[in-house]
Amino acid sequence: MAVGQIANADIRSTALAERLAASSDIMVVCAPPGFGKSELLRLAEGLARSDRRSHILRFDATSHRANPCAAADAILGAGKGDIIIVDSLRGADANALSEALNGRFPAPDAPRIWIALHHLKQLTLARLIVDGTAQVVDWRNLRMPDVEVRSRTDRIPSRFRKLVTDLARNWPAACTLLCRWAQQASPEEADWETTAILAASGLDEYIEQEVVPVLTPEELDTLVHASIAETIEVEPDKRGIARSHALQAITRTSIKIAGLIERQGNQLTLHPIFRQWLAAQFEALPKESQVESLARAAREFAARGDLVVAARLYRSAGLEAEIERAVVDRGSLLIWMTHGFSAIREVVEQAGDASVARSPILRLMRCIVLMKAGRITEAQQTFDALDTSDLPQTPDFERDREVVRVTLLVYGCGLQREDDLERFRSMVARGADEADWKSLLSTLSCILHAQRAHFDAALANLIDARVHARSADSRYNLLFLSLHEANILLAQGDLTKARIALGDARKRWRQEFADDRGAETVMSALMASLEYELGQLTSARGSVRKSAYRMPDSEAWFDIYAAAYEPMARIIAADHGLGPAHEALADQRRKLGAQGLPRVAAMLQNLAIVLSGEQWIRDGVVSNDPWGPITPVDAAGTWQEQETFQLASAYLAARDGRRADAEHGLREALKTSDRLNLARSSLRYRILLATLLLDGGDERAETELRRALQLGVRLGARQVLLHTMSPRFASAMAKLASEPDGGRSGRKRFIGALRAPSKMVEGTQDVLLSTREVEVLQALSEGGSDKVIGRILDMSEHGVRFHLKSIYRKLNVHDRLSAVHRAKELSAI
Asked: Of 147, 273, 571, 656, whose CB is crowded by the most CB atoms within 10 A?
């Protein structure tokens, strides 16, 4: 591999040299110092000398010192076919050289000229470039491609490779010096700070001797002050006086040393090594000059809306108090929606504890940071500690404080009352005129309504929030609005549209906010819920790992906790049994209680009862310990709390012999869920109602089962029908599957898909295959080794073989082919 990479590098250099050697007029090799201009000219010269008819004259800095006009005179006196090489203009009479070039070209008897320049302004070549007489090979052609950088770093000790690659980038001189240093350096030198590495490798001397002479003192000074920021905004729309003198100098400099300063859109980026060297020069400036420069740059970034960089610069200048001013000017909490959570978190961190303690608005921002980190108790304490007598009595601050209060309700899962909604509605109605604020306020209203299952109002808020977010270009809020939409659609049972909304959210996350772990956690929780409903357990396991196990330390609101924890518990129960599932729920309850989330913990207690009830119905196994106590739900609780409570109550009543009470409770819950279009809850209530009626031999059972199946077919929700798949339930399903449905309802196909992963096989009441064993069989039927199957199912090869042995024993077969054949006969796959 390395040999091929080196060969590729040689091919590139040779191709460029051949291009020079074949040129007929003027070739200008233009790049900053360190891009191998001289090496390229020497290689081309070697190729040209093979043609003995060519007369070659070479001029460099030594030649120019002896006679500044020697190169110009040679051009004027050279004949056709001669080659004049001007390697460096240092010491040359540039005016005389420009006049000679413009005097001889274009002409049929003109010589061939190769010139190495740092930048095109060193010579007057505009006319010759326009008419095509002079061709330019610039830094883009001379920079090292990634493959060559890798080939060079492959020859140095492994611990230095990433360091050298990140620092050198595509600058040939830097790569050469750093690789040479790495070959001789001791292992601990890999941990040195960049400034020390520049000194040890000789890069600082190279920059001082080769790069700095290209710049004027003003340009160098401007770059030193600009180096405090990673990028430089050029603001092309500003002209004349509006465009600062320093910015004009930077723009000129970016042309002179293009390659060490790269432009992308309206931003200039300094090469990391050059920036480090400039930063070292900045550190050597007087303290007053540093503070002035940092403050000026911070104000410029704040004016452009880049609060993160502004906060860093203010912190570096020791002016943390200015961060609050910048925050207020940019709309304080609005930064959350316009810049994302990472921005608001860093602004608070850069402000520091002392500034936050003095600033009410920064304390409100810290509340948001604590909530998003899952530290609900601390967030509530920080909010409660605000002394109302010292708070600013302004409409803006009142709005910010109300937003944090409502966000605490959402993230802290506090109980909502009607006056909460009314108070917030009035805030929205008289809220700020800015689209950003309207989007934020409508988003919070959407969450509050969705948690109460007021979906029409929630969707109206969602539409309004999305319109304003697009108007304000609040891309971070657009990401979360797709997640809120998916959450509503999951509750309504529209799994197809929920998947589309989650797909849009994932696309936005990957493109712009891939480092936002909180957004990924929320997205994965909703995806886990969707995948579980659809019976896609392998995918759901992966989503659970990215959500439920992060919950205590990541952002979430009640809907997200519910979406993540239920599939987590059910998957553990399917894979390892009810005991481990209960233990996992108990562990999460302890963490949630310490975190300040007692309502979520209470919901998980009721979920544990539901799991026990399902096993009792399904397998006839009764366990006393996990059955209680049931946790009551406040009338203002979320729809998820109500659903879990109603199911747990029905199971407890049925176990205690109070089946009439269980039926009554389920029918009352059905009235509410149907009225609210809570299709997800309605499906669960109907399935349990049908199950209890079947077990009691009630003649109404078939009607309820048909209704449950009709709803399940419409929603596409399969897994929920397996929760109570008792022998009697499976038999009733098989009877319905045998009925003709005209091919229109899809009932027969839906039931057939349900029977495959169930633990029941037609003709027997024995439990044959676990869910995991069915998945192994499904993967086995598609072909593949143990290793391939393990990769698909996220398990070890040993685990695959363990399940296969169990499958062989249960199906009474001795090989893979027979196992697949027998499983298909029994409709297990």
From this structure: 273
